């Protein structure tokens, strides 16, 4: 409410208003009073003071009125704002203080989480939704891929299970397959199931069965063919060799015995002869040539060598002379054919001769029938990748499958010992006769031998020690074993490239890298995949902690452990071949603890530190590798000797006394370096002569042409 004039005290009226600048009212009052009154008149002063008081009072009243009006407008605006806020809070259900506090706390947490997400995604709040959507889409695609891979894995597992079941029952007789096993589980007799299957087959269309049989016969036509002897004991007789190996008088009796034996072993229910059928005239028309003409002799093949033109009993042999070894005989006589032969140590060899003429032939002693040549004879399929096409390879293969496959063992047990004869090579670029020889050789060898009797010859498998580049002078303190390679890598990819060069690694010692910057994770996985493949082939992988002193030393150790754990997960069946010889916490027994802190630099590590490292390394890996990979040198080699050894120029140092070298005293020398024989040298400190004919005593501390004389080795 507005205050009255009486409420204001004199001090209030004379406060700020009196100190203000005179206004227009005061000026007009002074002009009016100056016309009638003097300046020193007290009445004038009283009138002027009263006017000023009234003016101040009026100004204060006006000021209060204006302030009250302004405050009313602000209060009205605040009331309207508060009303809107209350309506919003009522709609949101936040009229209670506890609910409002919870909402504000949650809003602050969401704001902090949003800031963290924007910082991680490196984007603004508007772009965050798009990036999160793309991530969700990527995760869904990966889940689909994982699901499809799981389905493939399940299918593969089922196939492996079915294959293992088939291998278990491979070679079994009738009724031992999966159908018989299922019948036993269901409590049924296997013969019942066989009868059901036979009845189901009888219900099929005969035309369908005929087409299936014809198609099957066409597929198997010409693939293989064999013959079987009627008997295989001492004194048995092969009919195919009757006309070639026996005399004409004995052929009939031998064939008769075979026929009687065959007739006796035949089944009694089968007829042994056919009913005679009427035949027409033997000759129709005028015969011009006899029905049974003589066979051409050139069309007859020899049973022994397979060449046409003669029989086995017509072949003769003669002894010729030559130098021992495998020779190629180039014939110069019509009775001798070209071929390869083995000349004995006494210089003689027997070669077959064939007389294709009707008259007898006499070879005189000393007759030159050909010439031996030193031509290289390359047998068929002698390449290393086709070693199984040799007799030794086929024999090992048949014996191995006899040991591992039951159906091969049963087939060899039922085999009567006759030769197998194939009619075609089955699509292989190999002669059919060679395939027959290989099959028969392997069968006969497997019947008489077992897999345990075959000696296994294995060559030396290489090993590799992968070291950081700082160990490049380690050959001054160690001497690597035979077939061991030292790799000084600067990057993980160098190790991968070295492992790609060979596939039969035996041991791989990997020392963790030394660097100030962490290596790329992609390179670690690349190395892990290659080492896992080699571990599955039998390689032993050993991880060793590298030297300390670099910034990324701990991270490199951890990533080495992670990579070797990945190798174990991939090569599950050979996980025992993966060795990690350090843990998360460094131990004093590790090789890196024996050499102290050495930061990687352009210079190699000191030889003393390298020697301590390899001594501890030899102790750590001694029980994890099949053989020692290196030996410690008794003394650190010099740089020159290490360089010559690297280039293959270093020789073993032998004391000169073993050669019987003697040194003459210097006084007996008549000139510069005289008296020293070839290969001799002066001892340390011995006097020598130099330019000018003056002598100088060797010194330890002086260098150059006047320095000490070093012995030559």
From TrEMBL:
Basic residues composition bias: residue spans: 693-705
Task: Give the InterPro entries listed for this entry.
Answer: Znf_CCHC_sf (IPR036875)
Task: Show the segment(s) annotated as Disordered.
Answer: 268-295, 665-713
Alphabetized UniProt keyword annotations: Coiled coil
Q: Reply yes or no: does the keyword Nuclease apply.
A: no
Stretches of Polar residues bias are at: 678-689
Gene Ontology terms, MF aspect: nucleic acid binding; zinc ion binding
Q: Which residues form a coiled coil?
A: 139-166
**Superkingdom per UniProt:** Eukaryota
Q: In its UniProt entry, what is this protein called? A: CCHC-type domain-containing protein
